[in-house]
Amino acid sequence: MLEVRKLACSRGDHRLFSELSFTLDSGQIMQVQGANGSGKTSLLRSLCGFLMPDEGEIIWRGENIRELDEEYYAEMMYLGHLNAIKDELSGLENLRISAGLSGVELTEKEAMDALRRMGLKGREMLPTKVLSQGQRRRVALARMLVNDAKLWILDEPLAALDVGAVALIQQLIAEHLARQGMVIFTTHQPLIVDGIDVLNLNLS
Question: Is the dihedral of CA 27, 60, 189, 94 positive or negative?
Fold first, then answer.
């Protein structure tokens, strides 16, 4: 369903990777590995359509993502290593706005339920600037509960999370894969999904 054909990316004059090819099917998960500066985030941003690769193609359902445009973005969710939330807004407001930008109409109850499942009960209405780093990360990751995207692209999803939150994210990923979703991620922490073999792509 997702096919990468001979992809190449550079940063300035430095070639990060080239001739990179792989496929990912429904129900599969892939970890992108490599040393710092090897191009992990650049690859993820290319897969999202945010960064134009030097060479190669990214194919979704048999078509180049450049030709699909909004059709592809409706089926893809990207969570970067930065939380991309507004400090002055509450977790509830942040989640509803981000869902709206993805084309998902989220009721207040649905947003509250998602934040509570993420362990933020009692903090849903607080400005996110008063939350801890781990709590702010949970607000960002709550998008995983309210998005219908087929393909999840996750850059360091476990950053700043405690053991309980890591276990919850692993559970959410397992549920997504069971629904025949797809996941590509990077992480510096172990991410274990019970019963699922994680494919590895090494850029170093």
Answer: negative
Maximum Cα interatomic distance, the chain, rounded to a whole number of Å: 50
pTM reported for the whole predicted model: 0.93
d(CA 114, CA 157): 17
The series of mean pLDDT values per 10 residues for the chain, 204 residues long, is: 96 93 97 93 95 96 92 92 92 94 89 96 97 95 92 94 93 95 93 89 89
Q: Which residue, among 63, 9, 16, has the nearest Cα to 35 in the 3D structure? A: 16
Q: E strands, 26-174, where?
A: 29-33, 55-60, 63-64, 76-79, 151-155
Q: What are phi and psi of 8, to 5 degrees?
A: -135, 140
Question: What would the two tokens of residue 57 be?
Answer: 């193609």
